[in-house]
Amino acid sequence: ETGVTQTPRHLVMGMTNKKSLKCEQHLGHNAMYWYKQSAKKPLELMFVYSLEERVENNSVPSRFSPECPNSSHLFLHLHTLQPEDSALYLCASSPARTMNTEAFFGQGTRLTVV
Amino acid sequence: DQQVKQNSPSLSVQEGRISILNCDYTNSMFDYFLWYKKYPAEGPTFLISISSIKDKNEDGRFTVFLNKSAKHLSLHIVPSQPGDSAVYFCAASRPNFGNEKLTFGTGTRLTIIP
Fold first, then answer.
1. Do A62 and A3 touch, CB atoms closer than 8 A?
2. N or C: which end of chain B has fewer CB within 10 A?
3. What is the torsion angle, in degrees rounded to the nearest 10, for the CA atoms of residue B3, residue B8, residue B12 and residue B14?
4. Which pLDDT value is given to residue A72?
5. What are A30-44's pLDDT values in tens digits?
6. Do B98 and A100 touch (CB under 8 A)?
7. Long-range contacts of range B63-71, CB-CB < 8 Å, 24 or more positions apart?
8. Where are the beta strands (DSSP E) in A1-114?
9. Strand runs (DSSP E) across chain B, as ranges?
10. Residue A2 with chain B: CB contacts under 8 Å
11. Residue A18 above 80 pLDDT?
């Protein structure tokens, strides 16, 4: 248990569906992240939030829409996804975004787009 | 262009022997390096890190070596135990960016043979 909880753990959705991934941390961290892990590829940083404000968007398609209502919660809203978006989506948090500290990861949501 | 490379997708080591996982990087701006470990169906967990001002950092059975001139780091696990079987990710960050611009390798799957 790392203190970062993601739901759901598994999700299968059609290309026309709208779904949301949820992440919650109670570690008192100020920064939260969404990562994508595809097979045989490095973890790709998608979004960075610091104190609930989006800092970084690494050229992610608009069909992925993040939301950070408070410092403990992070959502990733999904709509009109493509099969190539099937991957493991990981949420992480850290005390501050620019510090050299470890990040704490959730268990991930395994997403399959059909 | 992959700036952090783990060229061995997999490695098998006998229990009790030394496991050596390698990581190469191309960006000379990286100044902080981390190793994460990932079990199936779990998120990555932090293992050990090293700053570029050091060439070695040790924590119990785990030691990370950094060779800046070769842009190479390695993780040594000794003695290897069955519970060490996991995927190991190398990651690197740039000054003043920390987790905001963390770059990961593709991972090496370590299997410890009893």
1. no
2. N
3. -70
4. 94
5. 999 999 999 888 999
6. yes
7. B64/B33, B64/B35, B66/B33, B70/B24, B71/B24, B71/B25, B71/B26, B71/B28
8. 4-7, 10-13, 18-25, 31-37, 44-50, 53-57, 64-70, 73-79, 87-94, 104-105, 109-113
9. 4-5, 10-14, 19-25, 32-38, 45-51, 56-59, 62-67, 72-77, 86-93, 103-104, 108-113
10. 43, 45
11. yes
Question: Phi/psi of residue A106, each to 5°?
Answer: -80, 180
B62-67: strand order across its sheet:
B4-5, B19-25, B72-77, B62-67, B56-59
Q: Which residues of B touch A100 (CB under 8 A)?
A: 32, 49, 51, 93, 98
The sign of the torsion formed by the CA atoms of A85, A114, A68, A97 equals negative
